[in-house]
Amino acid sequence: MKRFLQAIGLLMLAERIWKYSMVTRFFRRSAPSSTASPTLVSIIQPVLSGDPTMASCLERSLQLKSSYLLEYIWLTDRDDAAGQDICQNLMARYPNRPVQMISLPPPVEGQNPKTVKLIAGAKVARGEILCVLDDDTMLPDHGLELCLPYLAKPGVGLAFGLPYYVNYSNMWSSMVSAFVNSNSLLTYIPYTILTQPFTVNGMFYAIRRQVLTEVGGFEAIEHMFADDFAIAQLMRSHGYRLAQSPLCHGISTQVKGPRHYLSLIQRWFVLPRESLLRHVSRRERLITYALGLLPALYPLLLIITLLLRPSKAKLGYTLLYFGGNFAIFAYFNKRYLQKATPWRKAWWVPVMQIIFPLQLLVALFSPQRINWRGNIVQVERGGNFHYVSRRGKEQAASY
């Protein structure tokens, strides 16, 4: 057993070093050049009120600097008066920005509320390139110039970015942000060295209108709840590749309390369990488990073994492992993530490494029912879903 644990320990250190080297190599790659003249880009943003930072995120989109010509399409719910007010106020403050606001009725049973908005947005968009951008996501100035040239690469149907979180306004938001910022690059980039990307980060992605039309439009995925994985599978089923670009973009989600926090974490893991892992190949599933699940559980195992049978050697290794992880995080935070995590909040990083495995285990065995901004949804095996209850005033207030 002792030799087995030592072997696992060496393997986990090697895994950290390898992932670190893959991330740095990824960002050193030459970006594809684009000789195309600036074209119209349609930024489609489904809007749903509930997060107090949503207005600032939408405003940041209007302030985006780019060599491309931009138009904005905001899709709201007819019964979301707060969301409509936010949009109208911003449109009045930025009259020179081309913005359309469209209000839609509630989706019918079996329709993804976000995808329904994307369908409506794509119908009125005039751009050659469509960018799907969540209402809590902020692109950096000239970020489109980092991403959109990937669409010109042979066989690429969709290009997407790398998320990090910026909200440290309270304990629960800090926990989420520290977790994402210490894991996102190590999760999303290294596996693409071993295989082509098989899913996307749905907070932001770009697609050519011609390609979207060819694959059947957003209508082809309106009955799948995990829209990010669904659009990825749609692209791949038509022979298109997914391109991971070096664009890093911020996300602001204010987590209101323990209930909201647990709901968010559960959604993050129930959806991949019921959609992605049930559709990818055996090789892709193995890569996911080897590079994602096992390393995620290891910090908890390390702490448990240290507490059960403490020794100086185990303590030294534990400090080395967590110290190495923190050093990687600190470098990535400064070099790639715009110092999104302030130093006074950085202590959450090792704490989340220990807490996260417990959350992961709970989520893996949790019911397939999730809360999405007040909509209670039962996710079915394979990725379809049905509404248990719809978002209402009481739900929205308690979420």
From TrEMBL:
Pfam families: Glyco_transf_21. SUPFAM superfamilies: Nucleotide-diphospho-sugar transferases. It is found in: Membrane. Its main location: membrane. Pathway: Sphingolipid metabolism; Lipid metabolism; sphingolipid metabolism. GO terms for biological process: glucosylceramide biosynthetic process. This is Glycosyltransferase. It comes from Ktedonosporobacter rubrisoli.
